[in-house]
Amino acid sequence: MPQTPRTLDDLDTPVPLVDVDRMHDNLRRAAEYCRAHGLAWRPHAKTHKSPALAAEQVRAGAVGVTVATVREAEVMAQVVDDLLLAYPPFGRAKLDRLMALPPHVRLTVAMDSAEALRGLAEAARAAGRRVGVLVEVDAGMGRVGVQSAADAVALARAAADAEGIEYRGVMFYPGHVRDNVDRQDDGIRTVSARIGGVLRALDEAGVPAGVVSGGSTPTFWRSHEIAGITEVRPGTNIFNDRTTAEIGACGWDENAYSVLATVVSVSVPGQAVVDAGSKALAKEEIRADTVGYGALLDRPEVVVKSVSEEHGLLDLSGTDWRPRVGERVRIVPNHVCVSVNLHERLYGVRGDEVAQVWDVAARGR
Length: 365
Description:
The protein is 27% helix and 23% strand. The chain is of the alpha/beta class. The strands form 2 sheets. Strands 1, 10, 11, 12, 13, 14, 15, 16 and 17 form a 9-stranded mixed beta sheet that branches. Strand 16 (345-350) and strand 17 form a beta hairpin. Helix 4 crosses helix 5 and helix 6 packs across helix 7. The longest helix has 20 residues, at 185-204.
């Protein structure tokens, strides 16, 4: 058995690191914001996929967690007794697994169709279980969600009448609002007006929404400006990432996650190559006014200009720093969630010391 690593020198690269103190500061700030605005905090576990970190969020004040997959639900149910599956389950295999969650788990499922509702209701009745439902409303992203207040009323009524189902309210995701925080006014107002209209229609139809679940990391600090919102579901902000910092939703020094990599080549002028490519950082374009696939934690002006599977190319044109082969660097990826999903475990660090190790247990389906 390999020895438990004690310092960064004991770790082989590429390897994901979490600054434990920064992470706890991020959790504290999120919890304080939610308390100040009377919002329930239900962070999305898709970012860390670790039951130990979900437990940390609950200890910090979260009412439960959000999950995106049945696998995440199964893993998080080990430590959290209140789960929101923010993805409509369809098919017997998924539904059977959901119904097999421990009976003490309070399960809520978001959906936007009568077909998904019927399947969930049948499974809940067969299992002798009562499952909550949130009607998902398209807040403007154009990905999923009912398209009108009338559609929301119809699905809410169907959920309220379905045996085995408890209609609990509505859900939305303002994922299209990714501008810099200072330029989100129009987007926030539009989302608020759309959700407010749906809530009024539900009230008038006699199916008011007890829960209004929304939010994202890019809009997190402005969640209270959205009409009727009762709970928020940020995911990324436990760690933050390059995109979050670039749009002003966090400071660069609030990035808790990075990938430790080793410089393996400096032969080509103007660049350095590290051993962290798309299989460690992910290859996702940044949703901000810049380029590249990541940046160095201690030198954010040094950008990962391109990646292949096992190679990351650092652009040295904007710095006088010239690394040597064997030097180690820490890279903040554009999108932390997809980077975490590429790794089997996370290493919590304080300085150069490894303080904790967390399995990324909810990977896969």
